[in-house]
Amino acid sequence: MKNFIKTFLVLLFCFSLLSTISFAGDLELIGAGATFPYPLYSKMFNEYHKQFGIKVNYQAIGSGGGIRQLLSKVVDFGASDAFVSDEELKKFTSPIVHIPMTAGAVVLTYNLPGNPKLKFTPSLISNIFLGKIVNWNDPEIKKVNPGINLPDLKIAVVHRSDGSGTTFIFTDYLSKVSKAWKNVVGRGKSVNWPAGLGAKGNPGVAGLIKQIPGSIGYVELIYALSNNMPYGDIKNKKGNFITPSIKTVSLASNTELPDDMRVSLTDTDSDYGYPISGFTWILVYRDLANGGLSRKKAKALVKLLWWMTHEGQKYAKGLHYAPLSKKAQEKAEKIIKSITYRGEKLVK
Amino acid sequence: MRKDRFFKMVLWVSGILFTLIILSILIYLFKGSYLSIKTFGLKFLVNKIWDPVNEQFGLLPFVVGTLLTSIISLLLALPFSLSLAILLGVFYKKGFLNKFLSYATELLAGIPSVIYGFWGLFFLVPIMRKIEIKLGILPYGVGILTASLILSIMIIPYISLISKEVINMVPQDLIEAGYSLGATNWEVIKKVIIPYSRSGIFAGVLLGFGRAFGETMAVTMVIGNSNFLPKNIFSPSNTMASVIANEFTEAVKDIHLSSLIQIGLWLFLLSIFINFIGEIVINKMKVKGEK
Q: Which end of chain A is more exposed for a tag (fewer CB within 10 A), N or C?
């Protein structure tokens, strides 16, 4: 009996010792949110720790979770692939700001005999995903892709089954280019798909597409690039067919952008920008004292954000992320400069 | 004496703690789904549309998908599990074959469900596609039947291992009495072993059903995740557990989140209900005179 209590107490002591050790270290910033930029963020945070000795603990729990945790002030910063809607912004007791970190893109990938390079127009994409075009030998597909031998094969549409920023960007694009899509489906992280199959995550979609001849779906550009998947060129607003790449995604954001940066990069006015791309953001309270941060933490966070939007950008390309365009970077600077602590500016 | 009291206290604390945990889950589910219950009322149960963009939420397609996959998987698993149980419980009670097969089934029970999902996606789906092409159906390869097949493989170990144990518990005198009356193997199995152990077998079936009912990962990978009422057993569909797992992390709107939690509430209530019915059936099935 006494032995039992003793062991218990010793264990308790050990646990408390462990927790003090992890707390006693350097200053640690805590963030949570989007999974899409996670590889880039962890690379950035790792380098930052090496250079400045400040640890950043980032949990990729999904954008929705990131926003909720920022709302309940259990994290120092949140991260999201979709900007916070006006309706949701009202839930925050104190204003928050969106700081763009990198841009990603969504590509159309397919499985056809020989996997020819295909071209897509906006109406073609929306009609396929609405379930109106059901066969690959449809005249509308042939018209856009002259000279390509398209088989008599049923189209199997594959979409994401889990709520995701990728779906948000893709449906945001379709809502912009197709009235029918906007009325029937709309945009969101999960939508009521009129056609096809759902698969979980990029690997799920890619897996199904590899399995089903005649299938078409959408995945993140990064995923398609690192897995050598075929993807189509897409006609942008200016009428040019654009091949998705890190460069064309960066170009898409090189247009006029709003000051709060709550903007989607789909179907932008850029001449050679890829039309289905979007920012991913880090979200913080405009006045960090309202987010429950100490002054020391607030200063460290702002320094980190500045570094991420400047020096940190050089890590993007190697991981297939599109770095911020010049115009986007300028706006990000302005936003970071507007962050305060009890009304006092943190960056001069 | 003191040790006794302490021991009893530990038992009590675990008992109370467990009840409290179940209660707190129920309270959380009610609280979380309050907004959705208030907004949709009973319409939630019969609505066929699940549209997070236009804030229309209905449970029906998921209940149908869940019940179809779990019932079909049970029907597929039952003959195999029973055969396996009889083989191990009656014919090969000892020896190499018993050890080998028991070990293999136990191993099957220990495989993480995501592995079953991957196996299904890369092994079973192509086979299903070939069958669907022969039948002239749009060859997705994924769908209710594929999910049911995976589920049935997952629940066979549960049903067969439990059935084997209860078959082992059939008194040897009864079996020998059967043989001494001139009954064949088949007759002994049919008239003595199965009737004697049927309540235990049913308990195994119930456990398997519960497993199939709540399975998430393996199902979501092969069911096609389509939020419509299925047309036939080859159609893609979705289950309650799978839609929660898919949409929970990124549900931003309150009503979306609340509706997902309400699905969780119904999943919880349905499994309680099934267990309750199961208990009644098990009691009814018990052989008279058995305590």
A: C
The whole-angstrom separation of Cα A330 and Cα A337 is 11
Q: Which helix (H) or strand (E) holds A28?
A: strand A28-33
Strand A233-235, strand A241-242: pairing:
antiparallel
Cβ–Cβ under 8 Å, residues B262 and B41: no
Interface contact B227-A193, CB threshold 8 A:
yes
Comparing C-alpha atoms, which of A307, A312, A334 is closest to residue A323?
A312
Side chain identity, residue B147: A
Summarised one tens digit per residue, pLDDT across range A30-60 is: 999 988 899 999 999 999 999 999 999 999 8
- pLDDT tens digits, one per residue of B83-102: 999 999 888 888 899 999 99
3-state secondary structure of A337: helix
How much is the ipTM here? 0.82
> Chain B: residue nearest A215 by CA?
B140
DSSP annotation of B233: T
Closest residue in A to B238 (Cα–Cα): A198
Model confidence over B186-241: pLDDT tens digits?
Answer: 999 999 999 999 899 999 999 999 999 989 989 999 999 998 899 888 999 999 99
Q: Which segments of chain A does DSSP mark as H helices, in order?
A: 2-24, 38-52, 63-71, 86-89, 122-129, 139-144, 165-177, 179-184, 201-211, 221-226, 246-252, 295-309, 326-337
Domain spans, chain B: 33-285
The tens digit of pLDDT for each residue in A292-311 reads 899 999 999 999 999 999 99
| Tokens 């993140």, located at residue | A220
Q: Which residue type occupies B10?
A: V
DSSP letter string over A93-153?
Answer: SS-EEEEEEEEEEEEEEE--TT----EE-HHHHHHHHTT---BTT-HHHHHHSTT----S-
Cβ neighbours for A111, distance < 8 A, ≥ 6 positions apart: A209, A210, A212, A213, A214, A215, A216
Contact A193 B247 (CB under 8 A): no
According to DSSP, the residues that pair with A28 across neighbouring strands are A55
Contact present, A283 and A98 (Cβ < 8 Å): yes
Query: What is the identity of the amino acid at A36?
Result: F
The pLDDT tens digits for A156-190 are 999 999 888 889 999 999 999 999 999 999 998 89
* The model scores a pTM over 0.80: yes
The shortest CB-CB distance from A88 to any of B221, B225, B252 is to: B252
Report the pLDDT value the prediction gives residue B164, as an integer from 0 to 100. 92
Asked whether the beta carbons of residue A64 and residue B250 sit closer than 8 angstroms, the reply is: yes
Q: What is the CA radius of gyration of chain A?
A: 23
Among B226, B238, B251, beta carbon nearest to A163: B251
Chain B contact set for A200 (CB, 8 A): 220-221, 225, 246
In words, the CATH class of domain B33-285 is: mainly alpha
Q: Which residues of A282-298 are buried (b: 16+ CB within 10 A; e: fewer)?
A: bbbbebbbbbebeeebb
Tell me how crowded residue B124 is: count the other CB atoms within 10 A of its CB.
20
Pick the residue from chain B with its C-alpha nearest to A209: B140
A35 neighbors A160 (Cβ within 8 angstroms)? no
**DSSP assignments along B100-149, one per residue:** HHHHHHHHHHHS-HHHHHHHIIIIIHHHHHHHHHHHTS-----SHHHHHH
Residue B79 pLDDT > 90: yes
Decide if B113 touches A, using CB distance below 8 A.
no
What residue ranges define each of the domains in chain A, with the CATH number in brackets? 2-102+279-345 (3.40.190.10), 105-277 (3.40.190.10)
